[in-house]
Amino acid sequence: MVKNLLVVEGSASPKLSRRIARLLGCPLLRPERRRFPDGELYVRFTREVAGEHVVIVQSTPEPQNENLMELYFLAKTAKDLGALEVTLVVPYLAYARQDKRFKPGEAVTLDYVASLISNSGADSFIVVDIHEPETLPRFGLKSRNLTAMPLLGVWLKRLHLRKPLVVGGDEGSEERARLVAREFGADYDYLEKRRLTPTKVMMRPKRFEVRGRDVVIIDDMISTGGTVAEAARILRKSGARRIFAACTHAVLCGNAKEKLRNAGVARIVATDTIERKESVVSVAPLIVEALR
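Above: the chain's sequence. Below: its structure in token form.
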């Protein structure tokens, strides 16, 4: 048991909060939460936190704005009540993809979320597979990005894949593929785009053939599923035996699951940074190691 450590459960991460508290052997606090008649959020700590290291576990998937405000209120309240230290564990961080101005006049929403977190009173911040790790200094407090890729590789090992190949969607995701593949002795590669004509582009693994192999498409998140579905169709046409999609964050907007299924994806494997049916891999051990 870690002394003076208290895990506070955010409404978006109840299962993960319980797993972290259990592994740490420390108390778990479920704050009182309710809505006022006008829809405003009410939060209340139901035990003393003065002098304790408070760890608030709150992911920020849809509804992103509500989850972010709850995170902010919990952090501010913990500090106001005399917490010695406040650590925010935000397994999935919303708005992280808008880290620059792609078009004139756009809001750089990552910077504004970073400002909210840095002004919450928190002392430190832990995130899992943030979209661009080099953006962490923008948060203005002690920050750490953890990667769940090895945990995904350990879980995939149990599937006993035939001649497994782990594939990233582009060259930038090759390192993710390597981290997953090394955990179960698989090959790894990335999909390379080759322009055949001014209007036709071919996509295929850069180094390895896929015919007769079980292929895992890996990414940090699956949102609409469009990119992974396109990759799955190409791999299926190239003769892949079975296709799996693995990610840290199962955002899965709209009909993403149907889209992947229609493209030939046999299974989606994800972590509990966002708590869904597909979240079969827990990042709790990773977070606990960072907290100790």
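The chain has a mean pLDDT of 94.
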